[in-house]
Write a structure and sequence with these properties.
mainly alpha; 16 helices; two-stranded antiparallel ribbon; disordered N terminus; 426 residues; 2 strands; globular
Length: 426
């Protein structure tokens, strides 16, 4: 499924059978199986059913979305396009991949279990950072000390950010991984408390968080709230680690994140999902994956004022999208209960007239297609003899980020089990 979002035909019981290269859903037959996808299929903010965190002093009440997208190069030298589509491998039918649970194959529990198995099957076995426990302790201490966590806010426990970063960056220096974890903690908390509230987000955009990250100074009239003071502290840590040259790249990532969150506001206000093309274009950035660029502080990485070529940036953004689609799958049940239309499953259901369970399975296929596309893009880049050793290191780092991000599945899966312990209810 690509950005043109055309449904080609429907027959029988409304199940997805195939997606052709031009992005059209050609036919849908009965049987409850996602048979195969070929051609240019395309379909962050993590969401779950957690209790809302406490306000941080910026005047925002909490919301529950963990935000925390973009195609990769089609060859070794091409920059990606949001509407480019991956070649998607066939999946086994869903009755094999997801056997019925006590409540049936279409319950939120059964669908989440199906997605979890899919995600873990695609992700290779990865190691852990030797100081993963220290990373977890550090990010919790930092976030709490800077007002990004308080009574009733279980976001840090739920996400286990240090553990996640340890899986995504098992070979990174501790200081680099620590900065990534802290930056992710900031993004996740901002997403929870500001990003999905149009009025709060507009106020924060007026105070220009990217400028705060670049300069380390509060603009006139901006409150000294937890989001700004912690961002200034994070900037100081980045500069101390030799990352002053990365501030423009990180600030641009933050700007794109905030702008894309703002573009989602009308969809939430109206309760109407966007088109698939619109959704993908924004989801690349609302994934909040830009803290990964701090990996460039590790030894041997590309450096300079413009360290990444367009194909390398495209690869990183595709990695962000893969993580975002995984989060959409695991967060769909909670977002559906909240009436949030901004989720890949809801978008697919709306655009193609699919029942929710079939849209969910289509989103799983969509994720698989982007994973396949990512693997092919990495292979193409690494086969390019003109790629420098530093650029190769970055490609391997992004590969590690995608492989390790499957670790995010487990905390959300356990949260689902804790909040919805019976399979019948999901």
């Amino acid at each position: 499924m690509t950005g043109d979002g055309k449904a080609g035909g429907v027959a029988g019981g409304g199940q997805v059978v195939a997606v052709a290269g031009d992005g059209q859903v050609r036919a849908m037959a009965g049987g409850g199986q996602v048979r195969a996808v070929t051609g240019c299929g395309q379909a962050s903010a993590l969401t779950d059913g957690a209790q809302d965190p406490a306000p941080t002093g910026c005047g925002q009440a909490p919301s529950v979305t963990d935000g925390p997208q973009v195609p990769a190069p089609t060859g070794c030298g091409q920059a990606p396009s949001v509407t480019d589509g991956p070649q998607v491998p066939a999946l086994v039918n869903d009755t094999q991949a997801s056997p019925p649970t006590d409540g049936g194959a279409d319950t939120p529990y059964a669908l989440a279990a199906y997605a979890r198995r899919h995600l873990l099957r695609l992700a290779p076995a990865v190691g852990d950072h030797p100081m993963a426990e220290e990373l977890e302790a550090d990010v919790r201490s930092w976030a709490t000390g800077h007002g990004l966590s308080g009574p009733g806010d279980d976001g840090l426990e739920r996400r286990r950010i240090g553990r996640l970063v340890g899986r995504c960056m098992p070979g990174a220096p501790f200081g680099v991984a620590r900065l990534v974890a802290r930056h992710l903690a900031w993004v996740f908390h901002f997403d929870d408390t500001v990003a999905e509230h149009a009025d709060r987000l507009a106020a924060h955009q007026a105070w220009d968080p990217p400028a705060v990250l670049r300069s380390g100074r509060l603009p006139a009239g901006a409150p000294a709230c937890a989001h700004f003071t912690s961002l200034i502290s994070l900037r100081e840590d980045i500069v101390a680690a030799g990352g002053a040259g990365l501030l423009p790249l990180l600030a641009d990532g933050l700007r794109r994140y905030a702008e894309s969150c703002a573009r989602e506001a009308p969809w939430r206000a109206s309760g109407t999902p966007p088109t698939l093309a619109e959704y993908l274009a924004q989801r690349v950035h609302t994934s909040g994956g830009h803290p990964m660029y701090l990996h460039l502080l590790a030894p041997g990485m590309p450096s300079g004022h413009a360290p990444l070529t367009a194909p390398l940036t495209g690869l990183a953004e595709l990695a962000f999208l893969i993580g975002a689609l995984a989060n959409d799958l695991l967060g769909h049940a909670a977002e559906q209960r909240q009436g949030d239309p901004v989720n890949a499953v809801t978008v697919l259901a709306h655009e193609y007239g699919l029942p929710a369970p079939e849209a969910y399975r289509a989103a799983v296929v969509l994720h698989a297609g982007h994973q396949h596309r990512f693997d092919a893009a990495c292979a193409g880049l690494l086969a390019d003899a003109t790629l420098s050793e530093a650029q190769r290191r970055f490609v391997h780092a992004v590969m590690g980020w995608v492989a390790g991000s499957a670790a995010a599945v487990e905390p959300y899966w356990h949260h689902l089990l804790a909040t919805h312990p019976t399979r019948e209810t999901g």
